[in-house]
Amino acid sequence: MKKISFSIQNTLKSSISVIEELVTEIEEVLKDDKMIFTKIERKITGEKNKELKKIKEIKIILQEIKRDLGLKEEVIIDKAVINSRCAKIWEILNDMKGEKLKKYGNVSEDVKNYINSAVEKILKIVNEVVDL
């Protein structure tokens, strides 16, 4: 294991964490196109498996850097992440309610009621997730 200073460790951990998130996102795009509001238009002519193998190679190198430099992984608590994301979802949903949409233009009562009903259903589920 190579000896590096604490500040260099932190810098490398931050950079590698971002790279890991980005390559994981690439991996997800290559694997699955079943999103609700995003359609992935396939432009890659070769096999997805080749691209996935390259992504795995990057991840292996990141693991080697972590091991060789003795970098510690960040520990996150699943419940804290879930609660944080649910809080953000809650905030966004409340901004989607019909009354708040008025600032962007006229919203018919029909649409407002529909949106409010859907938002309330999702809010209920989000609250249930937080309470698990």
Description:
With 132 residues, the protein is mainly α. The protein folds into two domains: 63 residues; 54 residues. Helix content is 70%, strand content 0%. The protein is built from five helices and no strands. α3 runs antiparallel to α5.
Could you give a short account of the major beta sheet? none
Shape summary: extended
**Domain module count:** 2
- The amount of beta strand, in percent, is under 5%
Total helical segments: 5
Structural class, by secondary structure, is mainly alpha
Order of helices and strands: HHHHH
Which descriptors would you attach to this protein?
132 residues, 70% helix, mainly alpha, 5 helices, 2 domains
What's this entry about, in short?
The protein is mainly alpha-helical.
